[in-house]
Amino acid sequence: MADLSTTYMGLKLKNPIILGASNLVTKPAAMEQIQEAGIGAIVYKSLFEEQIQLESIQMDEDLHEYEERNAEMTRLFPEMEHAGPKEHLLNVKTLKSKVNVPLIASLNAIYETTWVDYARELEQTGVDALEINLYATPGYFEIEGDKIEEKQIQVVKNVKKAVKIPVSVKLSPFYSNTLNFIKKLDEAGADGYVLFNRFFQPEINIDTEEFFYPWELTQERDHQLSLRYAGLLHGNIDASICASRGISNSTDVIKMLLAGADVVQMVSAFYKNQPAYAATLLKELSEWMDNKGYKKIKDFRGKLARKNQQDPFTYQRAQYVDILMKSEEIFKTHPMV
């Protein structure tokens, strides 16, 4: 029987499938099921500093809404403060005491000092690693791209100095040269990369003429960009590679490992198929390895990475050109009319 064990950022995992950051961690039944199904590790849902600040502002507004409506009324409620990240930290610590697999905390802060402060507090909960989510959507013309990158690299350096646990970086593909940026993060000491985070984009309701934010699961083939970069990065960086976004089934898991990922993160697949689906994924991965004669994950991981291909253009634009050159043959299989 195939040995599915692997390592991620130095952590020993019994298999390469990780539950990505999601609200599933708040559901005890889901946590029990996914552990019984054999999940390799769990990422706790992100601590968003922006959310904490907004909640604090909302609480302050609610407490003071009815004050000063009477000349004798100076304060309606006793002095109260927002709990800040305390509840989140307590929940992380509680789950850590209950799970039997590595637990990874996730963080998205705003300021350089709070990145470090929250990272230290999360480390104190006993988590095995920290995932910092470099989620940035510039909305102003004046901000230069290299300034954003410099700031994010400094965040990684600061967090790495502040904590002893492994630190991975979850990032977007929206850099002028994502490979170059990851190389700089590698030099800054990052222990792993999660490819890629998913932005929640605003939509417009044309009936109400208002914005809304649709909650959607990832779709099949959303993983292709992650696959490409896993193949480009494998063998060229020191840190671990975690493929994420749109990985729907065991076939997708195998693709990512062949491209060069060390592990994968999945969320939507568990929402669609229930947490127990992890057992099916592992069974099918093991069966595929047995059929191929692979004893361990390392026997085939990165087999199809660019570094191990004779064709240097496998992951580049030449493939698009190749498709154009064979367009007549393709249209025979997929006729337009």
Instruction: For the largest sheet, list the strands in their spatial order.
Output: 3-4-6-7-8-9-12-13
Unreliable sequence segments: 55-64
Number of helical stretches of at least 4 residues: 12
The Rg value, from CA coordinates, equals: 23 Å
What does this structure look like?
The model is unreliable at 55-64 (pLDDT under 50). The protein is α/β, with parallel strands linked by helices. The chain has an eight-stranded parallel β-barrel with strand order 3-4-6-7-8-9-12-13, surrounded by seven helices. A two-stranded antiparallel ribbon has the order 1-2. Strand 8, helix 6 and strand 9 form a beta-alpha-beta unit. The chain has helices at residues 28-36, 49-64, 86-96, 112-123, 145-162, 178-188, 224-233, 250-259, 268-273, 277-292, 318-325, 327-333; strands spanning 6-8, 11-13, 17-19, 41-43, 47-48, 103-108, 129-133, 167-171, 192-195, 203-205, 210-212, 240-243, 263-266. Helices cover 40% and strands 14% of the residues. The N and C termini lie far apart (49 Å). It is built from twelve helices and 13 strands.
Features:
single chain; 12 helices; two-stranded antiparallel ribbon; eight-stranded parallel β-barrel; alpha/beta; 337 residues; 14% strand
